[in-house]
Amino acid sequence: MQAKIMNIVGTLLFAINQWVQVILITRLLGLYEVGLFSYFLALTGPLVLFSRFMLSVLVPTQRKLSYDYVIFHEFRKITNYAFILGSVVVMLFVDLNVYESLCLMIFVLFKFYENKEEFIYTENIAEARIGFMAKSKIYKSIVTIVLFTAASFMFRSLLLTVLSLLVSQMLIYYFYDRRFSFSATRVKIGIRWMEFRNIFILGIGLSTVELLNSLVSNIPRYILEHYHAVETLGIFATIMYFVIITNNVVVAINQSVVAGLAKEAQNSAGKFYCSFFRLCGMFLLIIIAGEVILLLFGNDILVLVYGEQFMGFEKEMLLLGILLIFTVYTKLFEMALSIFNIYNLQLLLQGTTFIAAIIFSFIIIIPYGLSGAFIVVIINYLILALGQIGVLVYHWKYKVSS
Q1: Which of 155-159, 214-218, 232-236, 294-298 has the lowest mean pLDDT?
Q2: What does R_g of the chain's alpha carbons equal in angstroms?
Q3: Which of 31, 27, 38 has its CA nearest to residue 237?
Q4: Tens digits of per-residue pLDDT, 76-91?
Q5: Residues near 361 by Cβ (< 8 Å), separated by ≥ 6?
Q6: pTM to 2 decimals?
Q7: CB-hemisphere CA count at 13 Å for 42?
Q8: Which of 330, 179, 364 is CA-nearest to residue 250?
């Protein structure tokens, strides 16, 4: 229990660390730079999630393969280098100058090392060693906050602030994380084509789901940047960081309980659903408290954190409150579907949401701008949540009750 609480604390600190980055860029560098930083996240996000192949869920919950961690590690190495190649291809098709392209390339390297660290987290999640992951997040958050803050105040340069992220990530990876890797201490046996194919086939559905999920989240950002301005994207990104923080908290709690819930699901689906509904109820209490704070003090918090330039976004903060509810429960429903290895239907759901995101983004965001972007994101989450609930109800009715 202590390790699980530490993991939540570590994830909260990590989320605060990400938030501090946005605050410093917004206040010290400007809205254009924070918009550009958000654009980097939007460009690399889908590639990052696809290259990770959702091994953090697949390795602890899959029951079809019995490969050693070394095999999964070799698979991750291949997909991680593919991530760099894919990022370079993307850079060829986006309108960035030399300085901005250099910033993006450093950001890609930062994500490359983050992917390497994420696999070590995956190994420890599978072994229910949550304590290491919690300490790693805490140490990384502290180092990153110190270096990023120093770079922001001393140089006021997006290039050097992004470079501080890469340096922080490499320091934690080489001096702490690698000591807790299971695959790093074992004989390197390589990966055969058959093993690669089996992991690919097992994970491609869930990985594509995550890719589509990321694209659904980022399509409004692409439309805002292209049809309005990078500064408008910057405002949207800063407000949306409340969603990112919420998402990180939910992911941390999910990581803490997913192994236990997966074991319950193997023994009894009914027992799993009892535990899952209790988890949903716990989140409901947290949501109610959060919504009260957001409705009463949301705009004041926005101005206090980001400055006077964020005065007058009451409507967007109201839309944010609605969005946070869907953020929490779609992530919980996604975990439940993954535990039961219901990947194909998730792919169908995300494909439907992806098409809806494209259509509604052009219809709503182009004429209505910032508010339209929030409305589109809410519509996307609503479609996804309804589909997830439908699948879970079907599973309960025909797999559990029968």
Answers
A1: 294-298
A2: 21
A3: 38
A4: 999 999 999 999 999 9
A5: 219, 220, 223, 373, 376
A6: 0.85
A7: 25
A8: 330
